[in-house]
Each structure stands twice: as C-alpha cells, then as structure tokens.
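Hi support team,

I'm filing this because I wasn't sure whether my run with flavin-adenine dinucleotide finished correctly. The job status page said complete, but I'd like someone to confirm that the output block is well-formed before I use it downstream. Pasting the exact inputs I used:
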Amino acid sequence: MKRVVTDSFFDGVVGTLRRDEPLARYTSMHVGGPADLFFEIDDPADLPLLLSRCATEALPWIVLGRGSNLIVRDGGLRGLVIRLGRGFAGLRVDGPHVVAGAAVRVSQLLAEVERAGIGGFDFLTEIPAEVGGLIAMNAGIPGCEMRDVVESIVVADAFGARTVEAWAIGFGYRRVGLPPSSVVVEATLRGWPREPAAIRSDIDSRRARRRATQPTDAPNSGSMFKNPPGDRAGRLIDAAGLKGTSRGAILVSTKHANFFVNKGGGSARDVLALVDLVRDRVKAQFGVNLEPEVHVIGEDE
Ligand SMILES: Cc1cc2nc3c(=O)[nH]c(=O)nc-3n(C[C@H](O)[C@H](O)[C@H](O)COP(=O)(O)OP(=O)(O)OC[C@H]3O[C@@H](n4cnc5c(N)ncnc54)[C@H](O)[C@@H]3O)c2cc1C
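And here is everything the job wrote out:
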C-alpha cells in the first residue's frame, strides 16, 4: 500500500523531496516503477534524524547508489528511497589513503588517485558505481575486491554515526555484513604510491578489455548472477545455449552471457522472467543453482 507522509516528516533534514519518482531513470537497467518518496539528502549530519523518523513511523527505506546493481519491480517501491547528495561527495587524499564520501563516483575516484599517484584502484575501471554501493556489494573482479582496499568506513543509523574498521565489516562474495539499518557515509581506502602514467596505462587496458568483452552499448546491470564455486555463471549460460535468448525487450547479451541488456522499453517483469528461465535451464542442464547478484526490490505491477 502506498505510504503517505506529510512534508513535515522531513523537517530539519536538508534535501530535496520528490513524490512518485520513477526509478527506471536511476537504475542502469532502466526498468522499474516509481518510489512513493524519493529524498536526496544533502548533509550527512542529518542522516540519523531521518533514519530515526523512519524507525518511529515504521517507514521502509532503501539507500540508492548509482543503481547499477538494482532491479526495481514495475510496481515501484512503497516507502522511501534515500539518495546521497552533495555533502556525501567529498574526496581527499592523505598519503596512500583516500577518504571518499559514499556518493563519490568511481570515475571521480579513479581520476583523483591517478592524479595523486596512488595505485591499487584500477580494478574498479568501468564499474558504474558510487563508493557506498561498492562497499555494500564488496564489488570487485576475480582476485581484487573492495575488501582489499578498505581500511574503515563510517556508517550512520538512527542513533548516530560511527567508524567501523575493515575487519569488523564482514566482507563476503558480493555482500557485506553492515550493521542493521545503516548507511555507508564515508570510506577510508588504502592504496600505494605509483606513477600516474602506470596507473593510466592499467586503466586504459582494463577499459579496452571491458569494452571488447562486455555489452557497454546498452543498458544493463553488470553480472546478473554470482559465479558459482569453481565456475563462471557466464560460461554455464553460454554452454546452455542461452546467448541471445529474450523476454520482451530484455536479452541475454550475445557478447557476455552473464549480462542481460535492455534493448529499449524493457520491463522488470521481463528481466525477472529471463532470470527464471536462465536459472531453470542451467539447473536442468548442469545441476548448478545460479544465485542472482543483482538486488531485486519493490512490488510487481
Ligand atoms: C556495466 C556494469 C559493469 C559492472 N561491473 C562490475 C564488476 O566488475 N564488479 C562488480 O562487483 N560489480 C559490477 N557491476 C555491478 C555494480 O556496479 C556493483 O554491484 C556496484 O557495487 C553497485 O554500486 P551502486 O552505487 O550502483 O549501488 P546500487 O546498485 O545503487 O545499490 C546496490 C546495493 O547497495 C546498497 N547501497 C548503495 N549505497 C549504499 C550506501 N551508501 N550504504 C549502504 N548501502 C548502500 C543498495 O541499497 C543496494 O542494496 C557492474 C554493473 C554494470 C552496470
């Protein structure tokens, strides 16, 4: 049921409120219905107040990064979507450390570490995410992930903000154990001194490799499934003969079988129908259960 809250719910919290905001424009797959409430919060200091009001009113909420790992169902989201605004986008370098706000984009982070001569972050090349989303997903590539570069994070919940050291974060494969109902506000990352030209060269070659092997020309959500132990989801989907299979306007990429692309006007229903079809066929053919990597939120239409 649609949640109605008055504007006064946001009193004392600086930011911009939109109602019935279509979420398709905030997700990289470009599908999904509207959020009842969409609030871009400007100041990290106001976050505990907002979260405590949500707790008091039992208003469900979710924090949105770049939406590159989210499928929103077509009926949209009942409750509040919190987007982190300009107060969360600070970025500073301190020796081999980078202190980045949760809303810093990967492109910004890479430009800054290259300029400052800090190596260790090129594995993030072409991941269209924000720092908060990178941490929440322990994003990475085989052999390198956020766990390797995070020293500590600052999280906020209804009671305030606090620092959590890396060892206490509970990093796993494309998941983390953040404290319940908390939002990543900032991260301290650690790299090492490196020549900017060497950093640039690694970024360029990773970008070229990605563009050659992934469908960068159509909306998608990156890897749809996690790799099962000892294998790759893309290899199994390809071996099951599913490249090019479609549901509506959503297609299993012919370039990389673990990417689904939106040819235009696709729906979340099509994405989820294709997820089911691919899982069933891979299970039937190879006996392997594929687990989605994307987070699916919201309600059906
Ligand atoms: C073209 C493409 C390539 C990709 N390549 C890779 C890759 O190589 N490796 C990889 O791991 N992933 C990859 N991805 C997937 C995706 O980019 C990552 O999962 C990324 O970490 C998601 O970040 P985001 O900011 O978009 O988060 P969102 O998709 O907005 O959110 C993802 C989850 O994180 C939560 N979240 C977001 N911000 C915060 C915060 N501040 N505090 C707490 N929780 C938060 C959300 O609530 C949600 O549950 C790719 C995606 C695309 C589209």
